[in-house]
Amino acid sequence: MYEIIWLTFVAVLWGGTNPFIKKGGAGIEKISERTAVRQFLAELKFLFLNWKYLVPFLLNQSGSILYYVTLATMDLSIAVPITNSLTFIFTLISGKLLGENVGGKETYIGMLLVLSGVALCMSDRT
After folding, report:
1. Domain of 42?
2. Do 118 and 82 touch, CB atoms closer than 8 A?
């Protein structure tokens, strides 16, 4: 049961940071250098000196570490669908809180279907 809580926390870290990573990386498309190597280095510099990108990125990656650790004690056939589907839900919620257009009623129906699927997976586990 604790594994489900950890997987939900992973989904919060992944989904909750996705819109912030997107927002923090805004402006990278304006960087223009003459060579591919200079372009790559300029983009790396932009991202890693930008705290609005770096903080959510590091939180996101800490979720990946937690996911890896949790997989050691969890059945993969349950861990992957639960984490990925809940990540979708938390991405939508975070995006909505940031003022992004996340869609209409179809999105909310999809969220309910995803949550129903997660509930079915968890009920099979117990």
Report:
1. 2-125
2. yes
